[in-house]
Design goal:
alpha/beta, Rossmann fold, about 550 residues, disordered N terminus, globular, disordered C terminus, GMP Synthetase, Chain A, domain 3, five-stranded antiparallel sheet
Length: about 550
């Protein structure tokens, strides 16, 4: 242990050593795909499909990957960061595998984020070429957004087909498909596999560089914890520009030999419920908000096939857990992660679940809690493990890799989350450090305010913000879609939950809708900007 580690350990509330974990760290994403094909069969049908006609075997996906990778070589340079502006489709997965196979770095652009955020991402990762699809841009009404990007070259997959010449076809069909490991240069597991971008809810998004080792380690960690088999059928509607959707929703089932159905939009609640029934899906990932809507759009018999429904990316509302339990007889398994950790850190398991917690750490994850002034219990969570990122790209220093490190030491990641961990190792998220308000000298978690609102009004959407207040330092405002919600109802809900009076918002503002990110989280930055001109007047002269 380094001197910095020892110093931080002395200040820590507690330390959790890693559980035993071992995996084959020699693979890259491409070689892992080839290995999965070897294990589960080149011609095994219906391994992956999307909303376009056709179902694909491992051999089909390998063919797409090699072809797209070969085409990318004609237009990009080794080591280049290439933007991927594509939805959940088989061709997008092929593009990711193909780019990495030929030592290009796919940078997954969040096409729901808006032109400014996408532009910032391109500049942060020094992206000069963006691969997309004319058909996708037209269907998603994103042509204007894509064309507004400055300093990048847009390449359309539809336009690349004529560049695949006879010699390329001979290379593919006569050699690369049968000896894929010889067709591409041997990759380095520690080299960048993808660049993902943080949500940007609290500022400009950062580029998170994940190595092949980090992603494959996280897949192995989840597989060691969860008993997935090749008989499982995954439905993934979470966008693969998001780490949860990429690693857990798309790559994990491919590596495990499971069947994967990709859907392009998690907001199509009724369609997704129908697809689960039609496809007899057994595994579903989602955020609390998405799972709430899927359940409300489905009949009790629609989800009979589901074995594992795993919630992540945001706190699972108790009302959503109860809805799934009572309507479908399904217990939701809540997990927790961070993009910087590829992303899964913990999850409740069928044989070891504690509702209200986010489970226990996956094998290989080491954790420490550092005390936070003003917060009595729990602490700021710092983690490290084989699934840790290679580092950040920041807007202020584009393309310059900033290795991970925190107050605990080099190689550690400060999650920015305040958590409590009980004697059995179960983790409870208190809230994000940046989402606390100091009200009358006390630290109050804004997520506690939102939990109160959900308890008082379970079907509406709620978001809390802190604003300056002359008399109390800061005050809490609740934005809600429930036009009937009163402060008296919130106070009663807080009392029922055992939460302090300070967590009850001082003001309630009714809105038609809340701004959301493509990952299903509330976009707090946009919410704050949209309401900042009125914040000063919200509290002036108004009694609590």
């Amino acid at each position: 242990m380094s001197q910095a580690d020892q110093s931080a350990a002395g200040q820590a509330v507690a330390a959790w050593p890693a559980q035993p974990f071992d995996f084959d760290s020699r693979h890259t994403l491409f070689s892992a795909l080839v290995e999965a094909m070897r294990r589960h069969g080149r011609y095994t049908p219906n391994r992956v499909e999307d909303m376009r006609p056709g179902q694909y075997s491992y051999g089909d996906l390998l063919k797409i990957s090699l072809a797209l990778g070969r085409l990318a070589c004609k237009l990009t340079a080794p080591g280049e960061h290439v933007g991927v502006f594509m939805p959940n489709m088989v061709s997008t997965l092929g593009l990711i595998f193909g780019l990495t196979a030929f030592r290009r770095v796919p940078c997954m652009l969040n096409y729901t984020a808006g032109p400014e955020v996408i532009q910032n991402a391109c500049e942060t990762a020094r992206i000069r070429t963006v691969l997309t699809s004319r058909e996708f841009l037209a269907k998603a009404n994103l042509a204007e957004t894509a064309h507004a990007l400055k300093g990048v070259r847009l390449l359309y997959l539809e336009d690349l087909r004529p560049r695949f010449k006879l010699v390329d076809k001979l290379w593919l069909l006569g050699f690369a498909l049968w000896w894929p490991r010889l067709a591409v240069a041997k990759g380095d597991p520690e080299s960048p596999a993808v660049v993902l971008f943080t949500s940007g809810t609290e500022g400009r998004p950062k580029g998170v560089v994940l190595s092949h080792r980090a992603i494959l380690a996280n897949i192995a960690q989840v597989r060691q914890a969860f008993p997935f088999t090749p008989q499982d059928r995954f439905l993934n509607a979470l966008p693969i520009f998001h780490s949860f959707g990429l690693t857990a929703g798309a790559l994990l089932p491919l590596m495990a030999g499971c069947r994967l159905l990709l859907y392009t939009n998690p907001l199509h609640y009724k369609t997704i419920a129908e697809l689960i029934k039609r496809d007899q899906s057994t595994v579903l990932f989602g955020t609390s908000a998405f799972l709430n809507q899927y359940a409300r759009c489905a009949a009790p018999e629609d989800f009979k096939s589901l074995h594992y429904v795993i919630a992540g990316a945001e706190k699972l509302a108790e009302a959503v857990r109860t809805l799934w339990r009572e309507k479908f007889g399904i217990e939701l398994f809540e997990g927790y992660g961070a993009t910087e950790m590829a992303p899964v850190l913990s999850v409740n398991l069928p044989h070891a679940s504690r509702p209200g917690s986010v489970g226990r750490f996956l094998p290989g994850v080491e954790a420490r809690l550092l005390p936070v002034p003003g917060i009595a219990s729990g602490g700021d969570l710092h983690v490290r493990g084989p699934n840790g990122m290679s580092g950040y790209y920041r807007y202020e220093a584009p393309g310059v890799l900033e290795p991970p490190g925190s107050a605990v030491g080099a190689g550690w990641h400060d999650t920015g989350d305040v958590v409590e961990i009980d004697a059995d190792g179960y983790i409870t998220i208190v809230g994000r450090l940046k989402r606390f308000a100091k009200v009358a000298g006390e630290m109050v978690c804004l997520e506690m305010t939102e939990a109160i609102a959900r308890a008082a009004s379970g079907e509406a959407l709620h978001a809390a913000l802190n604003v300056p207040d002359v008399s109390r330092g800061e005050a809490i405002i609740l934005f809600t879609t429930d036009s009937e919600l009163t402060r008296e109802q919130l106070a009663a809900a807080a009392h029922g939950l055992g939460y302090p009076e300070l967590a009850v918002p001082r003001q309630i503002r009714v809105v038609d809708s809340l701004p959301m990110l493509g990952s299903g989280k509330v976009d707090y930055l946009r919410l704050r900007h949209a309401n900042s001109p009125n914040q000063a007047g919200l509290l002036a002269g108004r009694p609590e």
